[in-house]
Specification:
The complex is a heterodimer of chains A (about 100) and B (about 150). Chain A is an alpha+beta fold. Chain A is built from 5 helices and 3 strands; from the N terminus they run ααβααββα. Chain A is about 60% helix and about 20% strand. In chain A, a hairpin with a 2-residue loop joins β2 (about 55-65) and β3. Chain A is elongated and about 60 Å long. In chain B, α4 (about 90-115) packs antiparallel against α5 (about 120-140). Classes of the chains: A alpha+beta (about 100), B mainly alpha (about 150).
């Protein structure tokens, strides 16, 4: 049995990308994530909500130059979950290389 | 927990996921990397404050305030903000000694002018901080060596 397990919430391609982009950042604006993922607002919003519901992401709303902005950041729990998921992926790959 | 496809992931798919995560990490760092203009502006801001404080000129406070106000606007405009401190180890081995070094340089400038009336002392202190900070920000800031999963 592997020491680390894959996280089904983070594993989805778009959510994995969101977590990876946010990993080195303090926070990123919704627009930036949308541009980098190449998805619509509604799709991104759905994925961010799923991460937020799991406690992996935090959403902050603000206003800049009279325009509403939404900022997203990974929580400490999200950082740990992402790291664990990556470790599990690396375990799968390294185990195959040993065989 | 119900069985899901993640628990039977193939090596190929795991490798693809890792590569995707790596690419995402690179995106975060690339978008968050500060331009040289920003590094220069921050360095000059810090250096000018040091020099003006050395001369006990009140303008240092206005410059400090201007930077403190401009920074959030810059962040909002950029849409991204890189996590500057990644670990407690980095905080204690890099940030704290760096901050102490800056304070020491600034203090030496103050002492050089106020006690030894050496005009060059605050100017040298400010210049040293400007150059050092610019070098550190452009060389070590958000390097790709940190972009690994």
């Amino acid at each position: 049995m592997s020491e680390t397990t894959l996280n089904p919430i983070i594993h989805a391609p778009n959510r994995l990308q969101i977590c990876a982009i946010l990993k080195p950042l303090e926070e990123a604006e919704f627009k930036v994530l949308r541009e980098e993922l190449g998805v619509s607002d509604s799709v991104l919003s759905k994925h961010v909500s799923q991460l937020a519901d799991a406690g992996y992401a935090k959403v902050r709303k603000g206003i800049t130059a009279s325009r509403p902005r939404t900022w997203v950041k990974l929580t400490a729990k999200g950082h740990r979950a992402f790291d664990t998921h990556i470790a599990a992926l690396q375990q799968i790959v390294s185990r195959a290389q040993v065989e | 927990m119900a069985h899901d496809e993640t628990q039977t992931l193939s090596t190929h798919n795991a490798q693809q996921s890792l590569e995707s995560a790596q690419a995402g990490l690179q995106v975060g760092l690339r978008r968050g990397t500060s331009s040289r203009w920003f590094s220069a502006a921050v360095s000059i801001w810090a250096g000018s404050i040091t020099t003006l404080m050395g001369f006990d000129h009140p303008l240092w406070f206005l410059i400090l305030l201007a930077g403190a106000i401009a920074l959030p606007f810059y962040k909002e405009h950029k849409g991204i903000w890189v996590q500057e401190v990644h670990s407690a180890r980095q905080f204690w081995l890099v940030i704290i000694p760096g901050a102490l070094a800056v304070c020491a340089i600034g203090f030496s400038g103050i002492v050089g002018w106020h006690i030894y009336t050496q005009l060059w002392a605050p100017i040298a202190a400010g210049t040293l901080i400007t150059v050092s900070l610019f070098w550190a920000m452009t060389k070590f800031g958000h390097s790709e060596s940190r972009a690994t999963v």
